[in-house]
Amino acid sequence: MLTLIACSIKSPRKRGLRAGLTLIEVIAGLALMGSLVVSLLWARSRFDRGWSDADRRLRAVAAADVLLTAWSERPAEEFPRTAAGTVTDGPTLRWQTHLLANQAVAQLGGKVVRLEITDDRAGVLLAVDVVVPAEAPRHE
Prior knowledge:
This protein is 39% helix and 24% strand. The protein is an alpha+beta fold. It has a 4-stranded antiparallel beta sheet with strand order 1-2-3-4. Strand 1 and strand 2 (93-100) form a beta hairpin. The longest helix is centred in the middle third of the chain and has 50 residues, at 23-72.
């Protein structure tokens, strides 16, 4: 005769298995996410600052191009050697010219005039050196 014995096998509880996260794990995850957000915001602000700097420099190049084109259409004696003014396209852009000492150019009968385009916030954005003929002595 065959007898069957019913037995139940209980699996032992695993102590390392849990369903949730501990408070320390949650805080560590939040710290990692916070540092990621901070680094993304920092990178974005650097990008925006670089973009605005490049935009100001492009406006300065365009303003210098307009000024130099207008001045080149006049006689060389009328080229502004020491002057200043504002750029009409940008309310914060200003231009200034002044003479630079250059012996080699002076020996050839010319002078070096530096055109600087400046911004109220960023200082000098662009400097262009132009060689112009030395002013002829005026005969009266």
